[in-house]
Amino acid sequence: MKSSNLAPIKVGLLGIGTVGGGVFKVLNRNQEEILRRGGRGIEITMVADLDTARAQALVGPHVQVVSDARAVISNPEIDIVVELIGGYGIARQLVMQAIDAGKHVVTANKALLAVHGTEIFAAAHRKGVMVAFEAAVAGGIPIIKALREGLTANRIDWIAGIINGTTNFILSEMRDKGLDFDVVLKEAQRLGYAEADPTFDIEGVDAAHKATLMASIAFGIPVQFDKAYVEGITQLDAQDIKYAEQLGYRIKLLGIAKRAAGGIELRVHPSLIPGKRLIANVEGAMNAVMVQGDAVGTTLYYGKGAGSEPTASAVIADLVDITRLHTADAAQRVPHLAFQPDAMSDAPVLPISEVVTSYYLRLKVADEAGVLARVTGLLANAGISIDAVLQREADEVGGEGATQTDLIILTHECVEARMNAAMAQIQALPSVLAPITRIRKEELA
């Protein structure tokens, strides 16, 4: 093999946990392939980790291990800093210091970029350095690369993704085994799919961080996590998953970014998806992202969204990109958010009340004549048309002699504010006996 005459590019790793360990391992294992692709060697020469003994045992005697990340940033020999600490706090300070020191940065930290990305990318632009973050969204799936470069000829219409493996595992188990959310969550924690504190996953926050980044790249808008609508899966009931199935749908937690008449929709919530769509059949802890472009049509990206080596795969791809472009004029590089910084759009992110979608409604109603007519009458008065109705026999729901039943309604599209008003009127009916369950429905056609 013809080797490069250039000295290897030197990398400093901040944090060598699950992902950092994977990066070190894969980089060493595939060194020859990476050199052939990048045209220059890539070496991790310095690691910062609070547990220095464990880190040193992992990387061996030839890599310098320190407990203070600032020592890595201030080392003039380090060209690229890889931030794998996570969170918004110290990670933000370190990334800003690395940029200020003229280092390129690779990060897997979606929370940091979704909240502070505008400030970070602006600082990097001023300094002429790159901040690469393929590993921040969907683990090993190269979705950032696809959106930023592969689909650059397209006007992107919408993105819909299963971008949190923990919630997808929980929903898959609820569907397969008919179990309730709490039971499956405990199992997910036992198997290591869910953290001891799973709030960010189950409340949809993690998926919203990722959807925020994808929306910025797809539509050229600033990173605006605070404008995203976020709803998790904690309120989902096993019976809704069963009813959805009977109607030909699966329920998934989707991250959605969509171009609309008045601006951009940016939302994360459980959604009914037709069972025949490929994305509806993504099971377990896997991730998948659908992208609709005007020229290419619909494309689908599928793979492992987390884990040591899948995430390492994305981190190393970023290292190779930076290695190739290290000496290039900053103006020739792909912009951080795909669009030139002075050409970003000021299209607003729409509040959820202005979003247009269709709905699944489950009502617990008294088993008496005229209930369906009253409910559908109120929907008709609000200008909401019905797609399908599923009425359970009372004894199917509550056993023989039951006096209440479930009424399931699928609607056609309407603006959410109108649905909210109609639901308030329906909820006030004496024959509606419990809070209405409402789940949004996406055809993804």
Topology:
Layout: E1 9-14, H1 18-29, H2 31-38, E2 42-48, H3 52-59, E3 64-66, H4 69-73, E4 80-83, H5 89-100, E5 104-107, H6 110-127, E6 131-132, H7 143-150, E7 156-162, H8 165-177, H9 181-190, H10 199-202, H11 205-219, E8 229-230, H12 238-246, E9 249-260, E10 263-274, E11 286-293, E12 297-304, H13 308-325, E13 356-366, H14 371-381, E14 386-391, H15 394-398, E15 404-411, E16 414-415, H16 416-427, E17 437-441
Parallel strand pairs: 1-2, 1-4, 2-3, 4-5, 5-6, 8-10, 10-17
Antiparallel strand pairs: 7-9, 7-11, 9-10, 11-12, 13-15, 13-16, 13-17, 14-15
Task: Walk me through this protein's architecture.
It is a single chain. The protein is α/β, with parallel strands linked by helices. It has three domains: 9-141 and 309-340, 3-Layer(aba) Sandwich (Rossmann fold), CATH 3.40.50.720; 143-304, 2-Layer Sandwich (Dihydrodipicolinate Reductase, domain 2); 354-441, Alpha-Beta Plaits. 38% of the residues lie in helices and 24% in strands. It is built from 16 helices and 17 strands. The protein has helices at 18-29, 31-38, 52-59, 69-73, 89-100, 110-127, 143-150, 165-177, 181-190, 199-202, 205-219, 238-246, 308-325, 371-381, 394-398, 416-427; strands at 9-14, 42-48, 64-66, 80-83, 104-107, 131-132, 156-162, 229-230, 249-260, 263-274, 286-293, 297-304, 356-366, 386-391, 404-411, 414-415, 437-441. The strands form two sheets. Strands 7, 8, 9, 10, 11, 12, 13, 14, 15, 16 and 17 form an eleven-stranded mixed sheet that branches. The protein has a six-stranded parallel sheet with strand order 3-2-1-4-5-6, with helices on both faces. A hairpin with a 2-residue loop joins strand 9 (249-260) and strand 10 (263-274). Helix 1 packs across helix 13 (308-325), helix 5 packs parallel to helix 6 (110-127) and helix 6 runs parallel beside helix 11. The radius of gyration is 25 Å and the shape is elongated. The model has no long low-confidence stretch (mean pLDDT 94).
